[in-house]
Amino acid sequence: MRDALLGGLFACLGIFMMVQAAGFPAFPGQPYGASLLPGLLGAGFIIAGGILAAQDLLGRVGAPWVAFDEALRSRNGLISAALMVATVLAHILLGGWLGFIPVALVTLCVIFLWFGVRLLPALLIAAASTALCWVLFAIFLEVPLPRGLLVGIV
User: Fold this and answer.
1) Contact by Cβ (8 Å): 129, 87
2) First vs last C-alpha separation in the chain
3) What is the pLDDT of residue 80?
4) Would you say 53 and 7 are in contact if contact means Cβ atoms under 8 Å apart?
5) Environment class of 111 (CB within 10 Å of its CB; exposed 0-12, middle 13-18, buried 19+)
6) Average model confidence (pLDDT) for the chain?
């Protein structure tokens, strides 16, 4: 995908962020409110997206807007790309029912095995990665990761 198209998407996302943040309430007695950070991030997205689009439009005249990478022209490349999409869909569709931990363990193991990691290292790395993500997000950042089947256990 050309940088001009990607830059335009980022600029649109920045506009959306700023519009949504405009309705956030102000803090009593403060000159700023809850909209400050998302507004700044939105402005950054607009500026960075605009720069990315401008650089691409000025430097690559006549290039196609979308082109497939050479890796996607092979069977293994297509399967690898489909596997990445499938893991995201697995987290979306199965995460709430099964929980973050089982879905993350299985998807990471499948990815590692597909890319040639031996079984034991794949299992160990998947378990360590899942545990690290759980500790960072669920415990330190207090993000409510779905527990699914592990409600009452974790």
Assistant:
1) no
2) 42
3) 92
4) yes
5) middle
6) 90
